[in-house]
From TrEMBL:
One of its GO terms (biological process) is translation. It holds the Pfam family Ribosomal_L35p. This is 50S ribosomal protein L35. Belongs to the bacterial ribosomal protein bL35 family. It comes from Candidatus Yonathbacteria bacterium RIFOXYD1_FULL_52_36. It comes from the Bacteria. Signal peptide: none annotated. Transmembrane segments: none annotated. Gene3D superfamilies: 4.10.410.60.
Length: 62
């Protein structure tokens, strides 16, 4: 089974198997936010995926 490349580019799998991705809602209108909130939007957050989706989209990574 092939790995879905578009999802692979958006997610990162840690050595412990956690799947990390971007926090949603941080593309624009960030100037009025505090600096802490702006920088918090850059940090990766854990993405919840079912085992079925992991097998379907990320077979080579997990």
């Amino acid at each position: 089974m092939k790995t879905n490349k578009s999802i692979t580019k958006r997610l990162r799998v840690t050595k412990n198997g956690k799947i990390l991705g971007r926090k949603p809602g941080g593309n624009h209108f960030n100037a009025k936010q505090s600096r802490n909130r702006q920088l918090a939007g850059k940090r990766a957050v854990p993405v919840q995926m079912s085992t079925r989706d992991k097998r379907r989209f990320l077979p080579g990574m997990i």
